[in-house]
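Model: You mentioned two targets. I'll fold them one after the other.
Researcher: Yes, keep them separate.
Model: Target one:
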Amino acid sequence: MKIFLTGATGYIGQAVGRVLAKGGHEVFGLTHSPEKSADLKALGVSAVVGDIKKPETFRQQADACEVLVHTAFEYGPEGVAADKTALDALISSAKSAKSPRFLLYTSGVFVLGNQKGAPAEETAAVQPVAAVAWRPAHEQTALSAAGGAVSAVVLRPGCVYGGRKGLYANMISSAVEKHSVQIVGDGSNCWANIYLEDLAQLYKLIIEKKPQKEIYHATDGGVETLQSAAEAILAAAGGGKVEHWPVEEARKKMGPFADAMTIDQRVSSEKAKKQLGWRPAMTSVVKNAPALVAQWRGK
């Protein structure tokens, strides 16, 4: 299949592009930087230099692809508007095509808010943390594109771990370089997590099976406190201490994202397992901390 992928040089997008190309698909990856074209080529991905805020820079290539995958997000004051601009352009591309199109939009489990009881399924009411209060509307925009020859899926990954980017990579970096890990709050909360490679494989399954109109969660099923994850990472990195950052103080520097760091979630991905046959290979940050630290070190 011909696949257009936004955020192709990003943390998630790069892994998705590599897995799709390895699976025999023809992937066209959007990147801001011409200098990163070689990096994409090494993954088997054809670079499209453009900007998600400027659909005219990528629309022609999107129109030529049967699958449109949106993983890009630009952090900063224009990020939400840029996400909507790109999403609207991809929907317009899909709806104007003369043959079937499939749209896959990337959201996240933070739209569910705190989920302390039974693991939340895709039917759970959204109650997003302030940092992603805008996301449910974008999810609905993506799903509303489904109909006729257009299919649409919203994928909600958990906190992604693996490699040298992401929230857990920041913890590993601090553990290795400073022998300390700083976490917001007391660390008794549980993040709903997902290993990067398992997430990329789920993207591939969804794209190849093309559900008509669905939401899927992508989490590894583990229930581990942030404190236990930080301790395991420190032990794997050679030792150190966990430092607790009061939420009130963290807000002064991080804004609403500080509260997102204290989220306490149990999120189910049984739907993806049952409908798509997905089986995550890694299901614990704590048990795999030595491997994750080695990965970060490039070993």
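Model: Target two:
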Amino acid sequence: MKSSILAAGCDMGSLTIKVALIDNGTLLGSKIANSGAEPAQTAETLMRQLLHEYNKNSHDIDICISTGYGRQNVSFANENRSEISCHAAGAYFLNPSVRTVIDIGGQDCKVISLNDQGQMNNFVMNDRCSAGTGHCMEYLASVLGLSVEKMGQMRPFLPFIPHISNKCSIFMELEVLQLRVAHYSIRSISAGIADATARRVATLAGGISINKEICLTGGVSKNILVTKYLQKYLKTPVVLLPYDPQIIGAIGAAIIGIKKLQYRF
């Protein structure tokens, strides 16, 4: 068993690319960027920048695991793993009390159940419709001239929020536009979008046994209103991880790499 391992993780998401470095069990750092027109090249650039930041080079990496939408296109990865296993491993590494991971990614949403060893018990996934995903929220936020994170900070003026009922992202956009025509404030519409997203995720989560502690990963978790409404529908608190929730998949990929070398799993 090697005493010190430098592991890298690369999460090739549909919207963003994330890389992380873990040295001897300590998270050194990470980087994130939009996927761009050449995501494979973006991944290489990010990893090169991250290595340079810590005075290391590619030859110092003992193992690199890729994950995400484009995981098979990472030229510097030794192998790839699913987003489900990587988000589970990353969340548990950062908080071993976590038993349920809800990952709201760019193209899908996953609810993952863990045991007390951080191993996956079960999962459910919605990948058939973009509604309730990062791509959908990013698009609806752009209709309002906001980012997903900024939209979550738009607290409504009204004592109630508009109910967005459609489960299709295209018709959700029409509802948002109709609310603008009806002179609803951007704050209230933002809350309505967050509420609709939370309801959709909570419905998905109903297909699996939910155990505390629950955490969120993925870019949508930066929208604090989604977290607030999700807690209401799940009737339980959501814990915050001590790191950027968008990087969890890349962190988990590196952790899986370490375990592979140490324990040959």
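Researcher: Noted. Anything on target two?
Model: Strands lie at 6-12, 16-23, 26-34, 63-67, 79-80, 100-104, 109-114, 120-126, 214-217, 238-239.
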